[in-house]
Each structure stands twice: as C-alpha cells, then as structure tokens.
Amino acid sequence: MAGLLTGALAGLLAAAVALGVAQFMAGITGAGGEPVIAVGSAAIDLTPVPVKDFAIQHFGTHDKLVLLSGIVVVLAVFAAVTGVMATRRRTYGLAGLAVFAAIGAAAVLTRPVARPVDIAPTLVGVAAGALALMLLVGRTALGRTALGRTVPGRTATAPERGEAPVAQPATQTVARPGRRGFLLAAAGTAAVAAAGAGFGELLLRRFNVSSARAKLALPAPAISGPATPAAAQLPVPGISSFVTPNASFYRVDTALVLPQVSPDQWRLRVHGMVARELDITFEELLKRPLTEADITISCVSNQVGGPYVGNARWLGASLAALLREAGVRRGADQILSTSADGWTCGTPVETVLDGRNALLAVGMNGQPLPIAHGFPARMLVPGLYGYASATKWVVDLEITTFAAQRSYWAQRGYAVRGRIKTESRIDVPRPLQQVKAGRTAVAGVAWAPHRGIDRVEVRADNGAWHDAKLAAVPGLDTWRQWVWPWDATPGLHQLEVRATDGTGATQSSRRVPIFPNGATGWDSTTVTVT
Ligand SMILES: Nc1nc2c(c(=O)[nH]1)N[C@H]1C(S)=C(S)[C@@H](COP(=O)(O)O)O[C@H]1N2
Ligand SMILES: [Mo]
What we know:
binds molybdenum atom, binds ligand MTE, 3 domains, Sulfite Oxidase, Chain A, domain 2
C-alpha cells in the first residue's frame, strides 16, 4: 500500500516537474508551447458540436475552466498510474512519459499558428519529468527492488549502499533510508516544479498587452454616431441596459488563453481575389476615418431567451472602404478572416459592401477593445452572428469564395451565411419570480440587427396578443427595449413574447435548436402572482 502511494506520488511529482519546466520554457520561447493549453485547445477544436452546445449551455463562460480542470484530473490519474508502473519497471514509467510527450507534442504542433520552437517546452519538460521520475522511483521501496529486477545480475543489497549487511532485517534496510531519501527528492522535485511554473508565468507576462492597451488613446470619430436617444432606455428596473457595459458583455470564443496581440506588431493583410494586396499597421488603421456605430451582436449559440447577445457603441474603420481600396475581383463572395490564434470566419462580401456599417473596430463603448473582445482590432458586420462576422484579434482578410474555403464553424456544419434571426427576450419579471397582483411591467429586449424591430407583442396564458410599447433606437442595427403593462391576477401565469422585424417578418413560434443556423421559438416566463 505504501509502495503504491509513493509510486503514485512519484508519478504526480514527475508530471508536475514536466509541466513546471514546460511552463518555464514557454516563458522563454513565448506563448503557444504550453502543452496543457495546447491539449485543451485541440480538445476544443475536436469537440463535437452537440458537446460544445451542451458545455456553453451548462457551464457558460466557465466552460474553459471546466475543460482545463478535466484535463488536469485525467493527467493526474495518468501520472499516478505511470508512477506506480515505474516502481515495477522503469521502462513502464518512461513509456508513460513518452505517451504524455506524444500527446503534448501532437497538440502543440497541430495548433494553427504553431511555430517549430513551440515543441521545445514539451520536450524539455518531459525530459525533466523523466529525470524526476527516475530519481524518485529509485528512492521508493518498490523501486529499489524493481531496480534489482530490471538490471539482471545486480541486486540492491545493503553493502552496495555502504550499510552494515548484518545488523538489520532486509526489509528495513530497504525501506528506512529510502524513505528519507524519497522525502528529500520529493521536496526537491516539488520545488523545481513550482519554480518552473512561477518563473514561466512571470516570463510570459512580458507578452501581456494590458499596459499597451492602457496607454492607447483612440482618435475621435470622423463620423459620429447619432446621440443615443434618452428614450432608448426605459425606466424599468431589471431590463437589459440599452448599452451593455464592456465588463458584462458576453464573451464567446475558442481561445483557451487570450491572444496577446501588441498594437506595435499588429498588421492586417488583405489578399486573395483582389486587385491590390494591402498590408496595414495599427497606426495606419487609426489614421483612417473612424466611424462610431451602435451595433448589437449575438451568438448563434444563444438559446431562445439566452444571454449571448449584447449592444455596444463601437468605433472602427469602414471595412467596405478597405475592400474597395483592395479592389474585390469579380466572382469573390466570401471574406475569410483569420485571428491571431488561427480561428477563421466567413463573411459574405455583399453584406460588407451593401452600405451597412461593417467595421474593423478598435473601440468599444469609448475604450480600446478589451483584450477579451479582440484587442487591438476586430471585425463587426451588423446583422450577422458572431461566428460569421465578428473576428476578434483579426490579422488577415482573404477575399475568396464560399465554394473554395470553409471557415471554422462552417467546417463543423454551421450555416455558411449566418444572418441573425429575429428574436425577443423577456427580462422582467424573472422566471419563477413572485409578483404582486396589479399593474406589473413585463419588459425586455428584441433584436433583428440591420432590419430593425417594428413591433413586439406579449400575451399571458395563451390569450390575445398585446402590443408592447417600444423604446427609441438610434438606428436599425441595435436591439430595442419594450415594455407591456400587465394587469396581473393571482395565480400561476405564463407570459410569452414575439417580435416583428423591419421587413414585416414575425418571429417564428417553431422551436428549432441552435444548430445549424440559430434557435427559434418564443421566449416565455412562468410567474406566480400573489
Ligand atoms: N478570434 C475569434 N473571434 C471570434 C470568435 C472566436 O472563437 N475567435 N468567436 C466568434 C463568436 S462565435 C462570437 S458570438 C463573437 C462574440 O464576440 P464577443 O466575445 O466580443 O461577445 O466573437 C466571434 N469572434
Ligand atoms: Mo458565437
């Protein structure tokens, strides 16, 4: 039993050394080579769509933490088993480490933006882990016997260790000095693991762009958006604020660690089916006339009534002007945009060129883009789901065709053209809220970006539909608040909402899932009136 425990501990410590040293190496070679992050990122890319939807649904923005915790648990079990095996035979331990190395290396090297040097942290880490494992196993009671077995002709007898051969029973001679040695080795390897991880973390901080972001002063807009009408915000407690603050804006992306893209190094290449290739720096981007625009964006993974939608005042350069400068060649119908971490997005050329405020955005609600929302630059195209238009950390625009290339989510079966469906959501009363009988505000938001919201209707208990009062909006690209005064009577009630967009189309009642082009159905809330 004690042998199993020390073996398992040896395995865990060896894995910790491997990861700590790998982290230190990544601190030297730069982000991208951390094996656990790479395995996690590979897992995200390989996750089947239904599992991804389940994770977003149940873990929300914690999905990444859940994934990393899962990987660490699997890794720990594997490491403990490897340690125990190593006490039986060293080669078993080394084989376990080799599997560990192979998975890490494969994950690191298959990342879309992998550099050859990114393999170094995994290789050096595993080598250090192997040394630690041998050191520790040699100091476990079982490991000493195993040494005897694996090296024919030699036995770990007391005289070899320079001890008196006759004074003590054999078992004790093996175990006792070994225990002290093991504890020392364990403390030493734990220290190496912690130091590696700590220094690695410190070294990686030099790539952090928070201070570059803090220093950045955005130019004033050349084209200011219309002032947000005061009447865009209804005086209803609990309703979604017309402007979603940056700190509470939903975040959805495949990035396990946030890409750190320095404005000094940022460049955007525009190429493919164009008359002239463009390659612009961030300084050049800021010199272009910047437009301010209120745009609501939404995720295709938003369930009816869900939280993955937000509205902000963005600042950015015209994407249409950029494309016209490059000269889109006849036949091109897709802008395939790529982020610094290799994620791709396919946007119809015609939506960008049809006059809407498609932006290469640098500002969000009066600040440089938060790192989580794409600093230093991202795309935005009013009316399209994020996966089809809103590339964060964007660095490359390839003008191509939908026939020739598929973007990240299109490869996984999502609709190639991601037009946001007309949606509405009840914000208040909250589900299962206790409401006092009498006049009660039923209120929320509705959105059909770039088509606008013309009508919102509410009904209680499958009764007649009532027109809600609509708030003012600065344009067609934002969501719209609505409120309906309800005469609530005691009992359990169901409230439902539906919106009609600027084209006259009413939100469909048919419940369809998120996959492949967005959920539909009416949001409903059940409340108890007392
Ligand atoms: N680089 C990158 N950009 C991305 C994504 C991503 O995974 N990587 N996800 C897209 C999706 S699916 C959505 S819904 C929006 C969300 O933008 P937000 O996180 O700023 O709200 O970003 C889009 N841009
Ligand atoms: Mo999304």
